[in-house]
Write a structure and sequence with these properties.
This protein is α+β, with helices and mostly antiparallel strands. It contains ten helices and 20 strands. It has a seven-stranded antiparallel β-sheet with strand order 1-18-15-20-13-12-11, with no helix packed on it.
Amino acid sequence: MLIPLANDPRDYAWGSTSLIADLVGRAPSGRPEAEVWFGDHPGDPSETPDGRTLDHWIADEGPSAGIDAPLPYLLKLLAAASALSIQAHPSKAQAEAGFAREEAAGIPRDASSRTYRDDNHKPELIVALSDTFRALAGVRDLDATRRLVAALGDGAAPLGEQLAATDASPSGIIGWLLADGAGAAREVIAAAVAADVPEFADELALARRLDQDFPGDPGIVVALLMNLVTLRRGEGLFVPAGVLHAYLEGLGVEIMAASDNVLRGGLTPKHVDATELVAVLDDTTGVPPVLLPVALGGGVRRYDVPVADFSLLAVTPGAGTASLPITGPAIALATSGSVTLTGGAAAGSVTLAPGQAALVTPDEKTLGVSGEGELFVALPGVSRSA
């Protein structure tokens, strides 16, 4: 079966007022439009043409179509005009242990102080749809950060002392900033806002912008420790467990494992559990690799990621018809032009315009894609080592 899916944009404050509207070809609503979710996640499930939400449709129709609930992934359009919170996600083992611990403590799952809302990990992949997509990802090499901090002068001396310690580590420095270094963070921010360091001009410009949006937030100093990454259209960024990240600006397709487990590290009014964030952080430093898709032929490209929760294909069929094997429940999302989907089993087809999506049930076995446009297809991944 081919089931059209629809959903309304979520109006998070960091969302763009124009990017999603421009993609789908309508006038802006005047409100921030941050994300559109395509999936059965109970926080905001998609709607089917008969008025059911997708989680209810799968409960009713899924068994006969070869779908087990819940879907292992959530697919999104993401449109950022300002920074999301700095965050990291736990590994599967950390999520299971943390969830069990908070369940035993009796913390309500919807409590603002709750850290683990489920027992799953949350690896994620963002692919740029806008010409550029900016993000913070991973922790910069500490020697480079020492150069930056030295150039900031006396105001950054406390941070410099942390970096100079023989046992300096990203998690240790971030834990100090979030737990004990609020006063020092304000001094570092003031020094960064006033500084002119050509090697780090973009990073300091970002610090000035963040200080306007989140005055005095220690997360601004955390951001100064991170890599500023710019993706070009079609390039991806994969974020595994324990890696700090924050999306800053741009439009993208995002796919993630179905989880709500987020450990925040600043740039947010929400709960920041510094101790647990430090416990899950990966101390590896360096610039994360930009992920380029692998060409499979026939206008099909695959973004290879080392997780079994999801796989993402990009399809531009051109003058022909691309044929994709459907090995599990798939969600197809059009991002340009007009594309037509044809199943391998059911009669009929579905034509999608930009921003429109459809569920493809596994009993179709194959999916034909034709038309002059671009389509992203989310599928369950394959088991492989992380």
